[in-house]
Structures are given as C-alpha cells and as structure tokens.
Amino acid sequence: MDNQKILQAMFVEATIGIIVVDSQGKIVQANPFSEKLFGYEKGELISKPVEILLPNSFRNRHVEHRKKYHQKPIPRTMGANLELQGQRKDGSRFSIEISLSHMDIDGERFAIAYASDDTLQQETFKRLKEAKKISDDISNIVEESLSEIFIFDAETMNFIQVNKGARQNMGYSLKEMQTMTPVSIKPDFEEEEFLALIEPLKDGRVNELLFETIHIRKNGTTYPVEVHLQYSRLGTQPVFVAFISDVSQRKEYEHKILMHSEELEKKVIERTKELRTSESKLRESFEKEKQLGELKSRFVSMASHEFRTPLSSILSSANLIGRYEKGEQHDKRMKHVNRIESSVRNLTTILNDFLSLEKLESGRVRYHPVEIEIEEYIEHVIDEMSLISKSDQKIIHFHEGDKEVVADEHLLKNIMINLLSNGIKYSPEGKNVELHTQYTDGIINIQVKDYGIGIPEEDQKLMFTRFFRAHNVTNIQGTGLGLTIVKRYLDLMGGKIWFESKEGEGTTFFVEIPNVGT
Fold this sequence. Notes:
- The protein is an alpha+beta fold.
- The chain folds into 4 domains: 3-118, Beta-Lactamase, CATH 3.30.450; 145-246, Beta-Lactamase, CATH 3.30.450.20; 251-306; 366-513, Heat Shock Protein 90, CATH 3.30.565.
- It has helices at residues 3-13, 32-38, 56-71, 119-144, 164-170, 174-177, 191-202, 248-306, 308-323, 330-362, 374-386, 409-425, 482-493, and strands at 17-21, 27-30, 76-77, 84-87, 93-105, 108-117, 148-153, 159-162, 209-216, 222-234, 237-246, 369-373, 395-401, 404-408, 433-440, 443-450, 496-502, 506-513.
C-alpha cells in the first residue's frame, strides 16, 4: 500500500481544516475543508499570507506570535481560554478553534494549523454561562426574598433549601431545617393528612395548591400563613416548592373588619326594623284612611241613590193614591200600592244588609248546623224569590246526592237568597236562573248560574269589596254589600266562593261548604 497516497487522501478528506505555513508566513498547502471553511476556491489560498484568515485587528499582533512560534515550536492549542475569530473571504467573522504543530522538511520548518468552526461551541458555552448567571441571580433572589420559600423533597419530605427570610422568621438554621419536614412546623396537620392534601399536586390532578394554616417557630410561638404549593424538579430530583406569606396583619385587619361589619350589620338590622315598623304603621294608617274614605264615598253614593229612589217612589205613589177617590179607579190605586210595597221591600233589603254586616263584624253571628231536607228547603226559598222574579223568569233547581244535608239553616238561606236575587236582578225578562245543589260526603256544593249582563273583567277582582258595584249595573238597585256578606258567612262556615263571568253572557257563582256539621 502506498503510504504517500494514504496521507494524501487523509489530507484531502479530513473534516477539519489543515493549513501548512512556511517560515515566511505564506500558505503552502490548504486542504478542501479549510478552503470551504474560509470561503475560498480551490488553490486560491496558496502563497497568501496566513494573516488573511484573521480579522484586521489581529493581523499585526499575529505576525509576532507566528515568528516566535517558528523559533520555538511546541504543539499546542492556540489562544487557550480565549475566543478566537476567523475571517472568511467575504469579510464575515466566526468563532474558530485552532491547534498548532510543526514539521521540518529538507532543513525548512513549516507550521501546521488545524482549524475548526467553534461558533456552536462558543454559543453553547455562552448560553451555559448566561444560564449559570441567571441561576445564580435566581438563587440570590430566592435567598434574599422577603417571602418565606421552602423547598422539600417530594419523597422523603425533608427540607432541601429554606431561604433566609424563612430561617429568620422560624428561628432555625438551614442545617436544622434540613432535618425537618413541613409537618414539623404545621401543628394543625398530621403526616397522613398532609400527604393526602398534596397527593393531587403530586399526581398532576392540580397545578397548584393554595391553603391557609399555622406555622410554629422554634420558640413555640405561632403565626397564620397562606401557602402556595407547587410541584417541580431540582435537576432530576422531584421537589415541592412552597411560597409562604405571613398573614398575621391581614388576619388582624379581617378580624377588625368582621367585628365592625357585625356591629354595623346589627345597627342596620335594628334601624331597618324600626323603619319597617314605622313604615308598616304609616302604610296601615294610610290604607285604613284610604279605605275609610272609599267606604264613605261608596256609602254616600249608594245611600243617596238607593234610599232616594224608593222614597221618591213612595212619595209619588202616595200623592197619586190620594187623587184616585172614585171606585172605578181601584186598579190605579192598587198599582201605586204595589209600587209602595216594592219600594218598602227594597228599603228593607238595604237595612237588612246593613244589619247583617254589622252583626258579622261585631261577632254576633254564630254557626248552628242542623239536618235539612234540601229539596223541600230549596222549594221554600224559590217560592220566596218568585215574588221578585221578572216576567217569564223562573228559577230552575236540580239536586244531586243525599237529600238530607247538615248546614246552618239561616246562613245557608241568606247565601242562596243573595245569589239568586243577584241572578234575577241582573238578568233580563224571560231568562231563567239555574240553581244546582250537591251533597256528598258531608260537603255542600252550590252553583247559581244566570244569563244576564255579566261582570266586566276589570271589575271582577273587586266584587267581594264592601259597597263595590260593577260599572255596568247602571240603574239596577243594590247596596254593593251582598257578596261581602255572603263571603263573610262562608268564612264563618269554613267554606269558599268563586265565580266565572263574561260580560254580556252571564255569571256562575260556585260555593263549597266542606265538612258541614263535623
């Protein structure tokens, strides 16, 4: 094998730049890698001074260094601990690493430079240096932080690092704390309880834990803290990092604010209660005054109309009767006598309504249930009501269930008479009034249905108010007390009343008297 060819192949194929320089500093050989490294074409570097591969600012100094090396050559790395710069043909610079050696051929000395691009290594070194500085700065920040910072092993739970602020507050040295665990300074926690608390952080279910607890110092005193706990790594070692805030002052403020708030809330409650009492009394007084005014107005309006009309009719008829002296005028006299009787009945009804209401309000009405044969009882009521019914107007009654009922005879009669008289009064001639009664299991149900003028929708909510009359009653006589009295009777009997009505089509009243006589 030809050694010369092997050496030549090694020179050409080497992945490091190889440059041979004579004693005058001229390049006599440059392998392909070095030409590519510095950006030159093949053979372009031959006979060029080696300083052409250096930045201008280094060239003069390099001539002296080169001469000294030729006088006393020693294989070495060039520029140890220095960042060397090479310059390409296009003028760009790059970090370079150079190792030197020499050889003597035919009495002439040659220097050999082995060059490689050191940019990546220098950048890596620079980053490591910067990272170390940042790490040192962070360590210093952590150490000097006013917040307490604890780092403890995720497996043994022993403290690894505790910053100065924490050590000073706790009263322990770092060496002492490295023999302790978080449970050693948290009297509120047992070891199992604390391990259960941090387990979600350790297995990744949460990224951070925030909780409040108590820390105990070396001297036995305690103080409240807020703990921000995170899971991390110190190199390859899994650790927990705890950032602790002493919240003693905050807790004191919170306590003062709470006490002040409770005192203020108590005063507000007392004052609100006083205001509500006063407001309630004022509102009650105002409502009573308002109701009294409305009742007075309604009563005056009703009395002036309902008393004046029958009295005027009586006076007029009495005067006319005095004029009809002849025998053949008997029919005319009787017509006016009937008018007088009707007017007297109206006045009697009005007075009876007033008396009934007065007895109810004074508590003089009592409930006395007895057994009643309902069909016979209703028949008497219908006979009585037929005296006031209109032409071609009938009361149609039908009953379901037991015929023997238990009820207060007087109260039940007044309820039905009131509802039937309304049905008759507010229905036109020829329109019947239907009465449906039912008695089952001790419960009386009554329905009174008419086909009269109906009740306007806007008036329906006021129909059980004293002296109130719907706006469409026009000149139909009434006191506005009937339904009020019926409802008061039913309240006394434990019953209830409601109605359905449509203006112009009629009204149905429903009455239910439960558990009668039980």
